Known about the structure:
Oligomer: single chain
Strand content: 5-15%
Bound molecules: zinc ion
Amino acid sequence: MSVIDEVKQRTDIVEVVGQYVSLTKAGRTFRALCPFHSEKHPSFFVYPEQQSWHCFGACNTGGDVFSFIMKKEGIDFGDVLHLLAQRAGITIPSRFEPEAGGEEKQRLYQANEAAALYFHNLLLNSPAGEKARSYLASRGLSPKTITNFQLGFSPNSWEALKQYLMDRGYTDRELLTAGLVIEAEAGEMRDRFRNRLMFPIVDARGRTIGFGARALDDSLPKYLNSPQTPIFDKSSSLYGINLATAAIRQQDLAVIVEGYIDVITAHQNGFNNVVASMGTSVTEKQVGALKRLTKNMALALDADTAGEEAMLRCVGYENILDEEVKVIILPSGKDPDDVIREDVKIWQHLLEEALPVVDYTFNMVASKLDLTTAKDKTLAMGKLLPIVAEIKETVRQAHYLQKLARLVKVSERTIEAALSRIKPSQGRRKSEKPSRESVVQAVHPLMSSPVEEYCLALLLRYPELKSSEGLLPEYFENSENREIFTTWQQVNDLPSLKEKLDTAIHEHLDSLVTRSLPPISQTEREYAFTDCTLRLREKFLQGLTAKRAEVLASEAESGFTNAELAKLQEPAKKISTQLGEVFAQKVKGVRDELGK
Ligand SMILES: [Zn+2]
């Protein structure tokens, strides 16, 4: 049995959903006010037998326990899987971890978490923490914010933390690997962080992976980070991501700032989609990590540092996201923390005024030059052409080519010729990995839905079928199948699909990709795919009818008014019409095939 199946088996949807909404038993179902839309009378139902839910109101949608939590918490399939596995006491085997050494890593997460608690407690309660407390107060941070971010204080001692953690069974080797201590001469271990304000860095799954630390005196460096460890890679981590994930998904936008305090102040003021690149410019890995949540990014940049080189990097991010990146230009010398504390409205305004990076660069370059002179025209070309050349997406590139031609009043032809002499920087692009590096032949013991899986296997083998209409995500009952289906719509090749999917689904994906399909012609595979789509649609509609029937069966005790009941019955007619359509299409399909 796969881990996913095991998690499903050990999870009761009534119990889980019941933690979010108050459920009332109604016949064989449970009902509640829908948590996804506002309503006065409950049209949200949970079906214990099918382990599913459905909202017959404005949402008119449903699914299983996975889709419920994904929707409610704004987290992805993999995160829900880990959450439910933990809840059910199932350890996800280490083969699902990207690398080996899962147990060692667990110890490192735990050591970091214990250190975070230790620092947090000292900040709140120790006399020595007073300096850190007054610094935070001067920044206007509330106690609630300090708790949410688990801020802490590291005492001015060589071995306070070391001693604390060793008393709790951690070895000095583990503390060294976790980056919490450093090796002084003669193999002596000392605390890495001393007399500093501590910012625990927590990943999207809530695991403490490292620390940022700000000096509270004149010590240098002012900011110190955990070193690279088996669980911490600064270039791919984002500060605040644990608290920002839901907002980023909901707003379909991530705002990236540089500093820890910038993130914290933003969140305290309700801007919850803000994360930080931790003191350096954003990396491609960080952008790649965000891409799982949204394609839309806005970067907050200081007016002084937002030069052409920074913009060129931003265009690189656009190529990763396949979407425009916006820039939020901060007043010279100010960071988001200053701006927000001064006046939230100014920050709000800057967010609204954010411009696509290439437009901003054009304005910036043009404002500094006199484009009536030949000299400055050449300068503008020299600054802007490399940026236009870097744009991968052809329509956008053509758009900016025209814009550049208008700006410097030169024919597009001339600019195109100049462009063809510049080669976009290919160096950054990764060499493509083989698509099926690890071929897992494992056939699922639980072939939970053969039609769903056959349909997916066809789609994965013949991507051109993706353009066929009629197949909807909700037709997939199995959430891992649904997850593969929706993700496959967003990417172009199998390596990208795999990269986007949680590692826990890789095994299932591999089994679909390597499934042996009989060789079939193009017409045959189109026919097979249409057939699958119709069968899934039929199953979906029948399921809906059954669910509705159960709701109506419970009407006696449900307390619905007649008007509400009529409203609930309304879509039933629509469903039976749709089922009729499916039937007609099937008959037509058979006729077509016989006619050949
Ligand atoms: Zn609803």
